[in-house]
Amino acid sequence: MDKISEPSSKGKKRQRDQQDTQPQTSDLHQTLPLEENFAFSDTLVALRMMRAQFPRIDKVSIQPFVLRSQLYSSVKDRTQVDRELESLRREKVVRIFKLNTGQDDHAIMFLEDYLNQMELVVKRLEEKKQGDLQVFNWFRTHVINSKLEPSIEHQELYTLLSLGGTVKDGHISLLINAGLLTRQLIDPNMYWFAIPNIGSVLKGLSQGRKEVLSFLNRRRYKEMMLASMEKKRLRLSPLDMRFHLRDLIGSGHLKTVHTSTGLLVQVSKD
């Protein structure tokens, strides 16, 4: 897949201090055409840009997240993406989540955004006066801070929560109902860490993928200029066309070709 080149930063070790790894937003990033910020040489830079361009979604309180496939569309070396994501995860800059889409989808969220998302959930429960909310403090302090992998086993979860206080079955049920954990279907003793309030967005993600592919497949040559396609509005997804194009290019469903007038998006042949 062709990509716009960007000056490489190979050979220079990236120094990440606190300021470097903080997520940043910018109205300029939000309005830049996709073609002008399509490829990056650094995973963290790509994450920041995509976070800044995350669409504003009405009626859903969701912090920005980036799909692994979107990073694959914009950073040439997939091995580099995986390696740098692993480093960012270990440094507690980001968390990685397995998404319940029926496909091998993973979302990346800056840790600060994830904690803010959790805080929104707790505030809502406080307003409704539902359950023993101290478990959320235990979860944040003892589980999130020490368990960096996308999943956790029931006994380990119980042990870590016990560092905060006496754990009851109702506590874990509260975490599940809040959307912070989901049981794995294959092994009910394992949980995936989850992003609260993401359910309706995931439905839109699946529907939007189908809508974009259907749109291109109906065209005579199954292709369209990237700049023109980016302006199209989707009916079935709260996520914008730019979000879906990055995802579908990175997953291999679409590909880009350089032309004299810009990037052309084509449906990939089976």
Can you describe what's shown?
By secondary structure, the protein is α+β, with helices and mostly antiparallel strands. Helix content is 42%, strand content 14%. Strands 1-3-2 form a 3-stranded antiparallel beta sheet. A hairpin with a 7-residue loop joins strand 2 and strand 3 (106-110). It is elongated, with a radius of gyration of 20 Å.
Q: Helix coverage percent of residues? A: 40-55%
Classification by helices and strands: alpha+beta
Largest sheet: 3 strands, antiparallel
Output the strand order for the largest sheet: 1-3-2
Mean pLDDT: 87
Number of helices: 11
Instruction: Report strand %.
Output: 5-15%
Number of strands: 9
What value does the Rg take, in angstroms?
20 Å
Categorize the overall geometry.
elongated
Unreliable stretches (pLDDT < 50, length at least 5) are 1-19
The separation of the N and C termini measures 15 Å
Return the string of H and E elements: HHEHHEEHHEHHEEHEHHEE
